């Protein structure tokens, strides 16, 4: 048992022991932000255009109609495999935002850590929903229509009902933008409220299991068109000032 | 002194015009109103397709109940506006009392709405009882969620004021008050749309 009350000296972390930031560090930050743009552009290409999830399969469709949708081979499979492939691109963008947020709130803050883990979790739920849809699209001719529908429903519910991990990511970002000091602002304050609006637009998803043929169905006006529309609007509106913030931090750090 | 000079002096003395609330807050208000506008448009489009069924279903709503809710929310909004005026005049005790009354109005609305839901569901008019009731529960449910969030927000301010922690600036409470007026405004549209329009 330890009897002394003095604290041990802080062990240097790997980051402390390594070299300081260089121009390459910030070039990689910018690449991380470009990943966010690629996530949106390629996500729309694979998921919306190739796999034809825009407009989405309807929640009210019967099993036979769902099986018919997933039997359109190889189009659906190509689209979903591409969607799974690009899912990881959300993480680097979130990490760069998290680093900028750490700059705003300091290393002891927790908002940038929530952003980081929210970004990681969003990547995982994107992946899981993709894999569930891939199971629905995998050899549908060997499965019954209800089996295909089961995995389709599973994918949609993972895609939507796990919204809270993305919710906390947007909320932490919004709060961080609001607590910026007036003389050191990296993001416009409007962006905080846009982030909160995206959070608010996610809340009607809670009604999805109860209203299968409505505005809050997974193909509904609120949960699909409004929530996803605001999500895809938020990305470019955030990344433009984020690129400027990286340049500013680079200047502040390297001179 | 000429009139033009007087006007110039007046303009110089007047504080610069600004939107009430913290910077950027109106982005949220505008976005939220935009989403509700889509909902109202969607309701009207669905109603136009099957006006007879919507009218039949509407008969099961009680405008009296909706009217009481309207009164509660309007009174609450007025109390919150009075609280803001009192705060600006540094009448802190009055501000705290007006705010408590505003919160009470919001809570009254929430309780009244919950009772109305209970009556409707007991009578067999649940969210699955046709398109009208689906819209009824969604529109009023999302609005009720706004009321609950508003009550929480106002209660946070009230608790701080009650402990004597009055703000140096009013922009935070102005934002909360604007939000509360938006909730009120939305109900003023929802009430006739669902309960009264024939």
Shape of chain A: elongated
How many strands in all of chain A?
0
Any idea what the radius of gyration of chain A is? Answer: 21 Å
Low-confidence stretches of chain A: 1-15
Q: What helical percentage do the residues of chain A reach?
A: 55-70%
Amount of beta strand of chain B: under 5%
**What is Rg of chain B?**
21 Å
Give me the secondary-structure category of chain A. mainly alpha
Distance between the termini of chain A: 49 Å
Global morphology of chain B: globular
| Order of H and E elements of chain A | HHHHHHHHHH
Q: What proportion of the residues of chain B is helical, as a percent range?
A: over 70%
* Low-pLDDT stretches of chain B: none
What is the average of the pLDDT values of chain B? 90
The major β-sheet of chain B equals: none
Give the helix tally of chain B.
Answer: 7
Alpha plus pi helix count of chain A? 10
Round the mean pLDDT of chain A to the nearest integer and report it. 90
For the largest interface in this structure, which chains are involved and how many residues does each contribute?
A: A-B, 25 and 20 residues
What is the number of strand segments of chain B? 0
In short:
The complex is a heterodimer of chains A (255) and B (198). Chain A is built from 10 helices and no strands.
What does this structure look like?
The complex is a heterodimer of chains A (255) and B (198). In chain A, 69% of the residues lie in helices and 0% in strands. Chain A has ten helices and no strands. Chain A has helices spanning 14-17, 23-50, 63-70, 75-87, 90-105, 111-137, 145-161, 163-178, 190-202, 221-254. Chain A starts with 13 loop residues before the first helix and ends with a helix. Helices cover 80% and strands 0% of the residues of chain B. In chain B, helix 2 packs parallel to helix 7, helix 4 runs antiparallel to helix 7 and helix 6 (131-162) runs antiparallel to helix 7 (171-196). Chains A and B meet through helix 9 and helix 10 of A and helix 2 and helix 6 of B.
């Amino acid at each position: 048992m330890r009897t002394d009350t003095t604290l041990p000296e802080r062990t240097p972390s790997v980051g402390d022991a390594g070299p300081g930031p260089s121009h390459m560090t910030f070039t990689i930050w910018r690449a991380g932000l470009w990943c966010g743009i690629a996530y949106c552009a390629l996500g729309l290409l694979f998921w919306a255009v190739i796999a034809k999830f825009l407009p989405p399969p309807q929640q009210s469709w019967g099993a036979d109609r769902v099986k018919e949708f997933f039997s359109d081979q190889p189009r659906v499979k190509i689209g979903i495999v591409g969607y799974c492939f690009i899912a990881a691109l959300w993480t680097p963008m979130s990490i760069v935002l998290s680093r900028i947020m750490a700059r705003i709130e300091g290393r002891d803050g927790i908002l940038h850590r929530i952003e980081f883990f929210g970004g990681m979790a969003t990547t995982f739920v994107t992946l899981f929903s993709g894999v569930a849809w891939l199971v629905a699209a995998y050899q549908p001719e060997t499965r019954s229509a209800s089996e295909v529908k089961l995995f389709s429903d599973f994918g949609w519910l993972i895609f939507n009902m796990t919204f809270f991990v993305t919710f906390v990511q947007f909320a932490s970002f919004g709060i961080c933008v609001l607590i910026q000091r007036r003389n050191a602002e990296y993001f416009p304050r409007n962006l905080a409220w846009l982030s909160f609006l995206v959070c608010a637009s996610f809340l009607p998803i809670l009604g999805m299991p109860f209203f299968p043929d409505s505005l809050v169905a997974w193909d509904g006006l609120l949960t699909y068109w409004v929530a996803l529309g605001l999500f895809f609007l938020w990305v470019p509106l955030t990344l433009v000032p984020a690129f400027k913030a990286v340049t500013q931090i680079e200047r502040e750090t390297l001179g | 002194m000429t009139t033009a000079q007087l006007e110039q002096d007046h303009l110089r003395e007047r504080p610069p015009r600004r939107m009430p609330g913290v910077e950027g807050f109106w982005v949220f208000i505008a976005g939220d109103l935009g989403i509700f506008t889509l909902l109202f448009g969607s309701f009207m489009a669905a109603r136009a397709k099957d006006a007879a069924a919507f009218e039949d279903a509407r008969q099961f709503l009680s405008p009296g109940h909706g009217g009481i809710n309207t009164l509660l929310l309007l009174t609450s909004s007025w109390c919150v506006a009075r609280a803001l005026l009192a705060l600006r005049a540094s009448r802190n005790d009055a501000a705290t009392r007006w705010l408590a009354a505003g919160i009470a109005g919001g809570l009254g609305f929430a309780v009244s709405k919950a009772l109305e839901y209970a009556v409707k569901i007991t009578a067999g008019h649940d969210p699955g009882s046709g398109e009208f009731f689906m819209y009824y529960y969604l529109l009023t449910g999302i609005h009720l969620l706004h009321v609950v969030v508003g009550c929480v927000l106002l209660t946070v301010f009230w608790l701080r004021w009650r402990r004597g922690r009055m703000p140096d600036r009013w922009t935070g409470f102005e934002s909360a008050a604007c939000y509360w007026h938006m909730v009120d405004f939305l109900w003023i549209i929802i009430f006739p749309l669902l309960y009264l329009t024939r």
